[in-house]
Amino acid sequence: MSEYTLSGGASAFAVAAAVRSGQVKAVAVAQAALQRITLRNPAVNAITRVLEERALAEAATVDAAVTEGRDPGPLAGVPYAVKDLFDIAGLSTTAGAARLEHAPPATRDAEAIDRMRQAGAVLVGTCNMDEFAYGFVTDNARWGQTRNPHDLSRFAGGSSGGSAAAVAAGMVPLALGSDTNGSIRIPASLCGLYGTKPSHASLPRDGVYPFVHTLDDIGAFARTAGDLALVEAVLRGDAQPVPAASHRAAFLDGWFARNLSPGMEAAIGRLREGLGNAPIVALEGVDRARSAAYLITAYEGGQLHRDGLRIDPLSFDPATRDRLIAGAALPEAVYQEALAYRAVFAAQFADIFRQYDVLIAPAVYGPAPLIDDPMIPIDGAMQPARANLGLYTQPISFLGLPVVAAPLAVPGLPMGVQLIGAPGCDHTVLEFAAQLEAQGLIASTPLPEAA
């Protein structure tokens, strides 16, 4: 057990059990994770800052608790990393922006990090991201391009791509990120991971650099459904409920069945067959919902950075700056109209959720795009991946619904689906993911061969 635990292949459950039982020391687990970062990060570029001193101190605290017979917590000794928009006491919170690299350091940890520490988890590093979380590919002017551990010539997704790549490469079993329009679900899908986007505002955002307050949420990445449920329970501060016997599922059609790669279309078809040819339902106005989410993002992001853009526009990443400027110029009436459409769109989901517990839709169109060819096909034309990988995630973000991104059981490059629940039914989608994983209909993610 100890060799496997130290290799990076073990689940968070297994690591915590080994540490609690005394089979392995948390300090040894942390040292092994730090070594894996040293070996693997240069190729992937997932980690921006290694927190060795803090990690070893937190691990020593866990070991002391075990020695003294105290419960070190459900994540005892589990190494993890966080997207660089979570406050970490004593460090500048960059939000992926060079202009904030030397900002005054945070005076305390973000609430989510504090909860992870209390659960025994060990923070080992910060993760790369698109500047100010505005992008889907984690291509950063200051910290560089994060690459997909399954194929280094491809995107890891974004904006939480560093967090996803760190887990997919086996550097850590867990990582935290944020999701506004798909920033956890997209990299989870492209890197073959489980990821969670909770019911809006249900997980603590205190101490997390904002982007779009109407849509922002935090969440986690993991290689198994069980690990994902474990870390979400820690973040939520509640106990696991008794699982339901079954869940009624349906697949979203229409918008969510268009523009899929042949491999994704076939994989979703196999998943539907595995679920007894589950029903298919279609929604109206999905294109309008995506446009509304896009406008809300542009407006709120532009307003948030309006003063900085006015004072020092050249300090922004060029890939981010122009979109923020365009958003800052949007009339408030357009923003209000976009917000108003939420009630109309939500009414359709409310009707569907009276019949079904979980809705299934693709997270992305197919496998990760090539970095040197950053385009994806949409309605017969090639469009930039950075702005359009959220084709299927943005309409769901628009309503703040809980989602688990789950990896499909496919050969070759990873692809994933969204398991979508009704508002507040986060446990339902987590349970459903675990059931599908147990049935072999979705995958527990192995490490890439290079890892």
TrEMBL record:
Residues 29-430 form the Amidase domain. One of its GO terms (molecular function) is transferase activity. It comes from the Bacteria. Keywords: Transferase. InterPro entries: Amidase (IPR000120), Amidase_dom (IPR023631), AS_sf (IPR036928), Carboxybiuret_hydro_AtzE (IPR014087). This is Aspartyl/glutamyl-tRNA(Asn/Gln) amidotransferase subunit A. The lineage of its organism: Bacteria, Pseudomonadati, Pseudomonadota, Alphaproteobacteria, Sphingomonadales.
